[in-house]
UniProtKB/TrEMBL annotation:
Entries under InterPro entries matching the protein: Beta-barrel_TonB, Beta-barrel_TonB_sf, Plug_dom, Plug_dom_sf, TonB-dep_rcpt-like
Key word Transport present: yes
Membrane topology per record: Multi-pass membrane protein
Keywords, comma-separated and alphabetical: Cell outer membrane, Ion transport, Iron, Iron transport, Membrane, Receptor, Signal, TonB box, Transmembrane, Transmembrane beta strand, Transport
Domain TonB-dependent receptor-like beta-barrel: 246-661
Residue ranges of the region described as Disordered: 1-29
Database matches in Pfam families: Plug (PF07715), TonB_dep_Rec_b-barrel (PF00593)
Protein name: TonB-dependent receptor
Species per Swiss-Prot/TrEMBL record: Bradyrhizobium symbiodeficiens
Keyword field contains Iron-sulfur: no
Bias-annotated ranges (Polar residues): 14-29
Main location: membrane
Length: 713
């Protein structure tokens, strides 16, 4: 392996990390609408529906299960370019799985290598190289609820240049009322080998999203009307969540409206432009410099208010990788430095009645600055032919600055008063890690790892109270975790691979979010101590010619070990949550698939599979009084791929998939809800909590999707 290739691999699955790679063969013959369709093939991964059609919360070992929207507590890359902004926020809207050849899932605390926010791990999405495409491919997927995705992949390797371009146009009516969507994605990767020692790479991603957005339901509303049908008016139809809007847009009387009446939705754009220069000093040492500009532009009337803002960020990193020997032992050493920053001014405006997300007056403005800078080092040392040791450390300073201006309006004329809350926080964090890899023989690889992670709050977290209103929450601390992994990979032959990992992680000041009484607004707090432990299993078994069985299973047991929650109802009442399960964490998740592909004779290329997805129940509140129900889904697929004897066409791929074959109604997302108390200080029971709104989105009913893909020479 060349030095440059070794360095690129650090974003994929570096030695010593607990990692899984999902390759294209696992999703190339099926409709892959979102990351949820492909990432479930890795153990440790959980998926929940977010605020939009392809906005999914991705969790590694439960890392993001408590977050209300988007992705936190892990770092995401696209071909090694970071697509997690400096404030730690990632979104999956810009990810169309058709563009990718593989996804690397790195599980467990990984801040030594990936820095701030990598408490859960990291993901690296790898687009298809131009030489692999070697021409043009056009595909179309279409199916239930008006779903249609037209996509194009083009690529070539010509001389010293290799480039690939992916573009897609995706739209649909949505299976929940007020959930139509229209999104376009472009993803380009180009690499030029300018000299034998210099390589230049350019990455461009752009995603435009226009979508309507339903309101989240209570559990009772979900049981009554899971797909929010008939919710065009605020009265008369059971199970329809509503939102209260100021009639004049700033104070006084309110009107109660459904999401359809109010016209709630999202209109967002994400643009990422990156460049990388790699220089080989010799055949043992490579210098890499990388710069990324990442701009997130949002207009999100998702509830009683609309978030509006532009979030431009800059990310620069420089590092050296050296391969050689230390005391006669084979060595790979790495040292790098980095700097990233995001400065933004964002508004929160009231939404008025009347439809079309009509905006009223300003509710608050947040000026924020987030800056991270630091260094990281790593050493991989082959102690013997069978034993490899890995040691790494990262050090980072994070600066958070913010000024939140809350606006209040008095009287019919709306006389304005303002309240300022400021924050100026500085955090310094270090993250060491150690790992041992022991190749017992050609069949067995034994793995052991101890590692640390850290994640600072977002500036916006510092200014939201449990009521959902603006206020002072600036006491939030950094969450830190220390994790131990022990596992093995067993590959007795080329038809079977089994992998098992047990982990135990200790958290300090875990950052947890929960829904507030204001729709679309979450409150963030620290749980002083908690413990996460679990088991991850993966199997890939080609047990008979043409047959393949794959499975990914995760067991999670995550509990608070120190946390006293204060709940106010006139007076303040305290409740000890030690020993309680952390809400949002499903203890058991399984994806298993058995399939057959004909490899000889006139039916070569014809195949199919049956897949089951099982997600266990989980608690929705800190007191563990209310459970979101679990579910089992069955998907069935038939596909056909054949080479074409033509001067123009290379191959044809056809497929048909039925998802949720038995039409199970299930919870695709349940945000944590707040416990409440009576005036006497008694916690309200589950029967009361089932009416708490702002939590649940239903999953898709039975859907049919057919697709076709043609490759041109």
């Amino acid at each position: 392996m060349s030095t440059g290739a070794a360095r690129a691999g650090l974003n994929q699955a570096p030695a010593g990390q607990t990692a899984t790679t999902i390759d294209r063969s696992q999703f190339d013959n099926r409709p892959s609408f979102s990351v949820g369709d492909v990432l479930r093939d890795s153990p440790g991964i959980s998926i929940k529906q977010g605020n939009g059609p392809r906005d999914f919360g991705i969790s590694i070992r439960g890392s993001n299960a408590r977050n209300g929207f988007a992705i936190r507590n892990l770092v995401i890359f696209d071909d090694g370019f970071p697509v997690t902004q400096p404030d730690g926020l990632s979104r999956s809207d810009l990810i169309d799985p058709h563009a990718y050849s593989a996804i690397d899932v790195i599980r467990g605390p990984s801040s030594a290598l990936y820095g701030n926010y990598a408490t859960g791990g990291a993901l690296n999405f790898r687009t298809r190289p131009g030489g692999t495409i070697d021409g043009v491919e056009y595909g179309v997927d279409g199916g239930s609820y008006g779903y249609l995705n037209n996509y194009l992949a083009a690529g070539k390797k010509v001389g010293n240049f290799e480039g690939s371009l992916f573009a897609s146009d995706t739209r649909g009516d949505g299976y929940i009322g007020n959930s139509w969507f229209n999104t376009q994605t472009v993803n380009f990767l180009g690499t030029l080998k300018a000299t034998p020692d210099d390589r230049f790479t350019v990455k461009i991603i752009n995603n435009d999203l226009s979508a309507r957005l339903p309101l989240r339901q209570s559990l009772n509303q979900f049981y009554t009307n899971p797909f929010q049908q008939g919710c065009t008016t605020g009265m008369g139809t059971a199970g329809c969540p509503t939102v209260s809007l100021f009639n004049n847009g700033f104070n006084g009387g309110k009107d109660t409206e459904t999401a359809t009446q109010a016209g709630l939705g999202r209109n967002d754009r994400r643009t990422i432009v990156g460049g990388r220069w790699e220089h080989d000093f010799d055949n043992t040492m490579t210098w890499r410099n990388q710069f990324v500009f990442d701009d997130r532009n949002i207009s999100q009337p998702t509830g009683s208010t609309s978030a509006i803002g532009d979030f431009p960020s800059y990310n620069y990193m420089s590092d050296l990788t050296k391969r050689g020997e230390i005391l006669g032992l084979e060595s790979t050493a790495f040292f790098g430095a980095f700097y990233n920053t995001l400065t933004a001014s964002s508004d929160t405006r009231n939404v008025m009645p009347g439809g079309n997300a009509t905006l009223g007056r300003l509710s608050s403005n947040l000026y924020s600055e987030t800056t991270n800078f630091g260094v990281r080092a790593r050493e991989e040392l082959k102690l013997t032919s069978a034993l490899t040791a890995v040691a790494g450390i990262g050090w980072e300073t994070t600066l958070l600055k913010g000024v939140n201006t809350a606006y209040a309006y008095a009287g019919p004329s709306g006389i304005t008063t303002t309240t300022l809350t400021t924050a100026d926080r500085q955090f310094q964090n270090a993250a060491p890690e150690l790992a041992l890899l022991y190749n017992l023989n050609n069949e067995w690889l034994l793995r052991g790892r101890v590692a640390t992670g850290y994640g600072t709050p977002q500036v916006s977290n510092l200014f939201v109270l449990p009521t959902g209103l603006s206020g002072n929450n600036t006491q939030l601390q950094v969450q830190k975790n220390l994790g131990y992994d022990l596992g093995f990979d067993w590959t007795p032959n080329n038809t079977l691979k089994l992998s098992a990992t047990g982990f135990y992680e200790f958290f300090r000041n875990e950052i947890v979010s929960q829904a507030t009484p204001i729709a679309g607004v979450s409150y963030t707090f620290n749980a002083p101590r908690s413990e996460h432990r679990g088991i991850e299993l993966a199997a890939d078994w080609k047990f008979y010619p043409g047959w393949r069985f794959m499975a990914a299973y995760t067991y999670l047991d995550e509990v608070y070990t120190e946390y006293v929650e204060n709940i106010t109802n006139g007076a303040v009442f305290s409740f000890n949550r030690a020993g309680n399960k952390i809400p949002g964490i499903s203890p058991n998740e399984l994806t298993a698939r058995i399939g057959y592909d004909e490899f000889a004779g006139p039916l070569t290329g014809l195949g199919g599979f049956v897949e089951i997805q099982w997600k266990d129940f989980f608690y929705m509140d800190n007191a563990n009084l209310l459970k979101a129900p679990g579910y089992e889904l069955v998907n069935a697929n038939v596909h056909y791929k054949t080479d074409l004897l033509s001067d123009t066409f290379r191959s044809l791929n056809l497929f048909l998939e039925v998802r949720n074959v038995f039409d199970r109604t299930y919870v695709a997302s349940a945000n944590n809800i707040t416990n409440t108390v009576t005036g006497a200080g008694l916690q309200n029971s589950a029967s009361v909590l089932t009416n708490t709104t702002g939590s649940i989105y239903a999953g898709s009913p039975r859907t049919f999707v057919a697709g076709m893909k043609v490759a041109f020479k």
